[in-house]
Amino acid sequence: MPQQVKGRLVDLDAREIYGAIITIGDDGTITDIERDPSRDKRGWFILPGFVDAHVHIESSMLLPVEFAKLAVVHGTVATVSDPHEIANVMGLAGVEYMIDNARHTPLSINFGAPSCVPATRFETAGATLDAGAVEQLLDRPDVRYLSEVMNYPGVLNADPGVMAKIAAAQQRGKAVDGHAPGLRGAEAAAYAAAGITTDHECFTAEEARDKLAAGMKIIIREGSAARNYAALHELIDEYPDRIMFCTDDSHPDDLMAGHINRIVLRALRDKHELFNVLRIACRNPVEHYGLDVGQLRVGDRADFIRVDDLRHLAVMETWINGRLVAEAGAHNLPDYRPEPINNFDCSPKSPEDFRVAPGPAGAQLRVIEVYDGELVTGKLLLDPVLDADGRPVASPDRDVLKIAVINRYADAPVAVGFVRGMKLQRGAIASSVAHDSHNIVVVGVDDESMCRVANAVIAERGGIAAGRDEYLEVLPLPVAGIMSNDTGPRIAARYGALNGFTKRKLRCGLEAPFMTLSFLALLVIPSLKLSDRGLFDANQFGLVDLWEESPD
Description:
Mean pLDDT: 96
Distance between the termini: 84 Å
Shape: globular
CATH class of the largest domain: Alpha Beta
Largest sheet: 9 strands, mixed
Number of strands: 30
């Protein structure tokens, strides 16, 4: 039976707001939009739904069905989702697992074909997706695009494997997502000329302008770890047809609080033009990726939201395909909890595995420098603090700690380095959520604490852990070692408690310690990172020694 929804329609095509009655047919499409002048000045506002233009659902630590339950209450009707996190662990089977799970929710989850599995040849992942596997995915109508091409040196150097994946997407008329932090000028132009259409890694407006000049579209990111809105929002009214919004990686406690709606609200409070902001949040991703998401037109799917007003933007209702899926902050979506899949095969470690051999006389340590709220890291040369055996050790008073990455897929020597900026004064933290290969990454003040939390993760075959002395807290992640099959609110609560424990008991001063930790093994983000095979300098795009010897 047809349904009617009444209110003040925000018409992105006419760029006007007017009273309207929307009629929805039995098939979930809009059959009529009738102007109703009596509602021009009263009633809730009807807007197209919000679209996250680039998100790794796995980073929420939730399966798609549970992610959807949190997202729809904030007015999200669709996502553009890169499943490369689970692909790095499980390969094609992991991508299939995500696609199957997403079929059990009305949220329009649009997956891409992961282009970089593994992200580099300098780390151990659980799987490899070659050009043939990528083509197999791109042949599917439910795979909409080629996911972020992180190997930008491979693009610039015309690596045959990388270029074959880009060509496969172009031959099928599918978009190619980019990932090239810091790329400027002629290199940005060359990257775009290879067929790359977007970038979500810009951290300055100047970088974004170079990529816009090269023909790319820019996705402004506000996630749990990286937040670039402040640096890029001046572009909103300059390029409203070439900007999109995304969260990229959002942990469950942040997702409980908000999603794309928070970026929209912030942009409106910064006095950006309403129709420009809504075009960016609701329409540009639909047009760029060719999504089957309605735009409040007759004949479209009935995908829209109703909000209280355009100042506070409280989402009162979310409609997807003619179905009311969320109302007044509560969803009515179904449950679906399949059996976990995983790929985890390493033995418990001992404190000796985290020791570092003495270095050459007078040599300095190459140290990763962390910036709170950023994915990029710096690189430092620091004099080591040595123990009685001449081995370098952590020095919490200088905020210089040990970092280790453990191969989760096979027993192998532990890679150990040093990091400054983690602001951890006691104990250690560990996580098998470690982009992109999802080995186990550990940071701590001493070898015993690092070993203890690492073994807690190993015992669960994936999870995040924090501990000191007699205290130990663990959040198991049984799905590929990166997701839970529990509900969103429960995981958000447990994750929030673990964050609080880390800040109180371990005296960690970071805003999001586990999100920051999870990116310290992501080699494709400059400058210095650590993989299970050693220190990696993204600027040189190769492994480097822990020690820097004096030129003398």
